[in-house]
Amino acid sequence: MEIPRYTLADIQYLPALPGIYTFYNNKEEVIYVGKAKNIKKRVADYFATSKLYNFKTERMITHIATMVYTVVNSEYEALLLENNLIKSLQPRYNILLKDGKTYPYLCITKDRFPKLIITRKTVPSLGKYYGPFTSSSSIRQTLEVIKKLFTFRTCNYNLSDINIAKNKFKVCLDYHLGHCKGPCQAFQDVTSYQKEIAQIEELLKNNFASIKKVLKEKMQAAAQLLAYKEAQAFKEKLMILDQYQSKSLVINPLVGDLDIVAMISDESHAFVGYLHIKQGAISFTQHRVITKKLEEEDRDLIPLVVCSLRFCSNSTAPEVLVNIPIDLNIGPFSITMPKIGDKRKLVELALQNALLCKKDFLYKKSHFQGRPNIMLLQLQHDLKLKTSPDWIECFDNSNIQGHHPVAAMVCFKDGRPSKKDYRQYNIKTIVGPNDCASMYEVIKRRYSHLVKAQEVLPNLIVVDGGKGQLNAAVLALQEIGLYGKIAIIGMAKRLEELYFPNDTLPLYLNKSSLSLTLLQQLRNEAHRFAIAFHRNKRSKAILHSEWEDISGIGPKTLAKLLQQLGSPNTIQASSLEQLAQVTGPAKAKQLYDYFLHKKSMEATKASENI
Predict the structure, then answer these.
(1) What's the CATH code, domain 256-368?
(2) Which tens digits make up the pLDDT trace of 244-284?
(3) CA distance 292 to 267
(4) Strands 423-426 and 403-413
(5) Mind listing the pLDDT tens digit for each residue in 39-61?
(6) Domains 256-368 and 377-535 share a fold
(7) How far apart are CA 135 and CA 132, in angstroms?
(8) Domain 377-535 has CATH 3.40.630.30
């Protein structure tokens, strides 16, 4: 089905309704996505001779060949659609609005006896999600507080009534340390366990009053029974809770749920400070640097930034506070600019964060732009290189006794990882554990391709290994005709020896030198990348070889199980309900029956051996 396109002559036929419009160039590339209350009027404004635009906008207009529009019900829906299209298409003339990394969440699963899981992926069917948290360290600190206050299980057992009645499980170390009350052996019932989980949910919602009330009642009850040791334990929990609460309180705990967005900008960038307030406590913060493309004004950027940040923090706050006045009604929340009071103080706090973000950005830009990398200059001096090693590639092999051999290449540009240039290789011509031959194959494949494609060559090649791997790499470069054109060294792990071609004695760098630090970063990154690739390949091979006889379970289903449940052992230990959430009831039943049969066979074999 072909999407209708409109040209400049068709502007009169555009609808006078809210929606989004998309501009295409002659190469059928999307160059701009915009929203409008009135599509016809907004698009016509671009081509009105009376309008004065900046140079960038005028240049964009000259590249517009065709356009497409989409009508929506409201301006808020137009804003959401514009936000999603900018993120997915990244048009040339739209601002760079990226979410960055995925932030961690704390998930309370929907099991009969729920578990607490740290995850960066949200699967609504798995359980309730709380967050996001600003970093993995902050979420682990919260989890540590929860462990000190409440008890819950960390095992992956299927704690059904039948399994518990059959006494299938034994309590683990968490039970003996007091972190779990042993529901696996019926030492704790479902009702009592769910009460603990409900209290954890209240803490994650920042509802501290109800938790304090329960702890105080338990402390007083224990004191009346003269159980002073138990009463002291509850008192210590209250102190832990007070300490945790004091770290997150804002100016006035009665402000409720709010989003605060403060923005300052210059000609080329906008700097954003964001605070998400939940039940009077700061639960999420973020800074954003936005690159302008058409010298947009702040009042035009604020709605899009608000929409993106609310999505990132999973916010449902009814009010958004900003530092720039805008006249816009965009849906289920209001946007206001407070002038006095506690809300104004919160806006000033977000503005202070935006100013600090701008200061850091300008400092890094002025301090490092055009300044030679000291680490690279030191490495060039220590290795006696003719040019600065601005582009370094490092290779490493990985296998277990020759099985599933792979290799990986990582790339550092200007002393920093360039992950888009990383490469992974399946070893094709080598049988058995032969690191030297594997290195020869990978080096030859890599640089034969670069020569054939006439691409830019690196300044330095680092081989993870000693003289054997280095000689194999040198032989490959000689056959390609690149030996002598690219500097190459080998780096042995044991004593950090650096080997050079045609040099029998290794070079030892000072353990505290910047050169060795950079080379160690390269080697460790290559090792990590190769190991991760090898583990992934081995896990897939194990899955396919072990479960290829299960009817109806193909590679896509296995990949989906691995992605959502983590590992083969976790999949095998999952309950029928957990499997059904990923694969559907029919395939889940096949898998579950297969695992039961496998366990019974293993148990029979073990009894025969006894």
Answers:
(1) 3.30.420
(2) 766 554 445 566 788 888 998 888 888 888 888 876 666 67
(3) 8
(4) antiparallel
(5) 888 888 888 766 666 677 888 88
(6) yes
(7) 9
(8) no
